[in-house]
Amino acid sequence: MPPVSAVVIPLYNHASSVRAVAERALRVHPLVIVVDDGSTDHGAERLAGLPLHLVRLPRNSGKGAALLTGAEEAARRGASHMITLDADGQHYPEDIPLFLAALEREPAAIIVGRRDFSVPHVPRASRFGRAFSGFWMRVQTGIGVSDMQSGFRAYPIDVLRNLKFTEKGYAFEVEVLVRAAWAGFAVREIEIRVLYPPGSARISHFRPCRDNMRISLLNTRLTLRALLPVPFRQQAGDARERVSLLRPLESLRLLLRDASSPLHLGKSAGVALAVSALPLPGLQSILLLFCIGWMRLNRLCALTMIPLAWPPVVPGLGVLLGYRLRNGRWLTEFSVQTLGYEAPQRLLDWVAGAFCLAPFLGLLAGLTVWGLASLARRGMRAGGRGA
């Protein structure tokens, strides 16, 4: 049986287009909810006589707040999912059946409509925003979503009810996808049509300065959270489980249960330690996050390796190796002279040595984790057969 869904249309000062959007939505779906987010142009009055449900917010609270209100109204009317589309007429309500089919195939997933940007009059800001948000989605989650800013989507309402959000405006649509991916929900895309009127006829309430600033601050917070080697709370499973260097085999078994292979874990550990050992103070973690996203590494495994590169051991080895490379002999005198007055020389030693040491440490870590993970997997299989 397909999931029960409602179409939710957030409305803010689109009186000229909202009725046509709602009428077209009603032709393909029986349950339509319009959330009037404090409009001042009397757009809600344009919906008189239509068999839909209107919810009014007393003041403009932001698109995210309107969507969450729509989700609660949809749930109150018996829906388990909602399909959202904008009131400005850019989306084709006739594409709603595409979302219904996608939900029937995968009811637990968020479905994002990927807009066709081959049509005329696509704003440059929209093209840039799509690429910018997609880049950070990959960095923060390791998942590629090519149209993070599309407002034509389908959500399981439980996703919106069970996750906590900080954004109530346009940035909400970015935050919800990142937090849902962290919580283990699948994010899928389907192709949809889009219509962009010429610039003079286009009505947009996106405030470039303020809203782009909020999105940038949100991405900063989400990226910093992604850097922490702490598991994200999943919607299923034991939230008390933790990955730790102090419990290597137990941690590897936990990571293997997450569909990672020993080779994948070895690759993740190797790249992480190699990057963390580079002479790039303050930048290793950011660079590692990029690698996690673009190379699809196991995030927990990679971030757990960072403490192995902390001072003094790995930087000290880099200094010793660099001194050997630059002077042809090992540094044996550790005094105020060699470590104090000659600090600039030791810094050069560290840079030279670290770039040589990092690949070796990465290879060593990768082989070690791959070997231990292989042993752990064999133990898990043997235990399964014994049971």
The CATH superfamily label of the largest domain reads Spore Coat Polysaccharide Biosynthesis Protein SpsA, Chain A
Structural class, by secondary structure, is alpha/beta
Helical element count? 14
Assess the beta-strand content as a share of residues.
Answer: 5-15%
State the distance separating the first and last CA atoms.
36 Å
Order of helices and strands: EHEEHEHEHEHHEHHHHHHHH
Total separate domains: 2
Q: How much helix, percentage-wise, in residues?
A: 40-55%
Strand order of the largest sheet: 3-2-1-4-6-5-7
Shape assignment: elongated
Query: Which residues sit in consecutive blocks of at least 5 with pLDDT less than 50?
Result: 236-241
Counting DSSP E segments of at least 2 residues, the number of strands comes to: 7
Q: What is the rounded Rg?
A: 26 Å
**Assigned CATH architecture of the largest domain:** Alpha-Beta Complex
Q: Can you offer a commentary on this structure?
A:
- The chain has helices at 18-28, 63-76, 96-105, 124-141, 157-162, 172-182, 208-227, 248-256, 262-276, 284-295, 299-304, 313-327, 336-341, 343-386; strands spanning 5-11, 32-37, 53-57, 81-84, 110-115, 153-156, 187-192.
- With 387 residues, it is an alpha/beta fold.
- It folds into 2 domains: 5-227, Spore Coat Polysaccharide Biosynthesis Protein SpsA, Chain A; 248-386, no CATH class.
